[in-house]
Specification:
Two copies of one chain form a homodimer. Chain A is mainly β and 189 residues long. Chain A has a single domain (14-146, 154-188), classed as Roll (Pnp Oxidase, Chain A), CATH 2.30.110. Chain A has helices at residues 55-63, 76-82, 92-96, 156-159, and strands spanning 2-6, 14-15, 17-22, 28-33, 36-41, 44-51, 65-70, 100-102, 109-111, 116-127, 131-144, 163-165, 170-180. In chain A, the strands form three sheets. In chain A, strands 4-3-7-10-11-6-5 form a seven-stranded antiparallel β-sheet. The longest helix of chain A has 9 residues, at 55-63. The two termini of chain A are 30 Å apart. Chains A and B meet through strand 1, strand 2, strand 5, strand 6 and helix 2 of A and strand 1, strand 2, strand 5, strand 6 and helix 2 of B. Strand 11 (131-144) of chain A pairs antiparallel with strand 1 of chain B.
Chain lengths: 189, 189
């Protein structure tokens, strides 16, 4: 028996991503987002949503670019912290001792210590309500060399990214490998 | 040292969601998507992306509604299968023995056996390229009563949803609870 819970943003799992931008003075800033997802394969696009009140919103509107750095569980404290303060008042890189690196392809910084980085140009801006959705066209992905296999694929268990739960506001890790896609389904064909 | 991998849709974790729609004859259909995410808190919105060639694309354009049913790991075989065939040729509900239930709020079916269901009205349609992004305004969430606590929140470990890796095409489970958001970050304030 199912129970109705009303109109809510429940979705499982939600990611934990860190958006890197520069402000008008060139100060690098980082902010976490969980309202995000892949949205197109060709051109490769990832959508992130920000509230207008945020420093990152202003920076993206200014520079039309951003990076997405994916934190591993090891950096959960820093990632949690940067969601609690605003770049308006705080130099988050200085405070977390994370290292800003200017992207080679876009005018935005990424986090050197995080294992995977996605460099995006702003492709579409969609006003939805409290949040504005920024669709980023992926220009390049970079990852720690130790994570990359011969096919250029990554091991999610080595990335060790965080999961966010939109209702209980908690972080979880990634669990066990289950199987390849398009494998178990064969039995129903 | 980071290695550049080119323009790719790498993001971790990506969800595994099942989109429910009716066709013009009222036949219920389901299709999995991983190109998806929450995109606005108010109004609550979730974005999913589909290729134009899919049966689900046609159905959403026709009915302007869809549901999102979140499969638990228990249904990995059925979920994998429905991504391998098209609703043009197959009655996927019949083949998987899953039960279609007409949503109370929107003109679309959901999967009775899956623990969480999100009922959406089409809010925006954004042509991105190979994929079209459908932004759904959440009208209602429903969940198995056994999963709902006194505050109307759910336990992701009981939902036991799937994770998809966009580079290695594999399914993973959800791992351990780590901590609440806005907790560990206090130490850096």
């Amino acid at each position: 028996m199912k129970k109705s819970l009303g109109a809510k943003t429940y979705l499982y799992p939600a990611p934990v991503l860190v958006i890197g931008t520069y402000d008008e003075k060139g100060k690098p800033n980082i902010a976490p987002v969980s309202w995000a997802g892949i949205c197109c394969s060709d051109p490769p696009c990832i959508a992130i949503s920000m509230r207008k009140a945020t420093y990152t919103y202003k920076n993206i509107m200014l520079k039309k670019t951003f990076t997405i750095s994916i934190p591993s569980e090891k950096y959960i404290t820093q990632t949690d912290y940067i969601g609690m303060v605003s770049g308006k008042n705080v130099d988050k890189f200085a405070k977390t001792k994370l290292t800003p690196v200017k992207s080679e392809y876009v005018d935005a910084p990424y986090v050197e210590e995080f294992p995977v980085v996605i460099e995006c140009e702003l492709y579409h801006t969609i006003e939805l309500g409290l949040h504005t959705q920024f669709v980023g066209k992926v220009i390049n992905v970079r990852a720690d060399e130790s994570l990359v296999d011969n096919e250029g694929a990554l091991d999610i268990k080595k990335i060790n990214p965080l999961i966010f739960t939109p209702d209980t506001y908690a972080y979880y890790g990634v669990g066990d490998y289950l199987c390849q896609a398009f494998s178990k389904g064969e039995s129903l064909k």
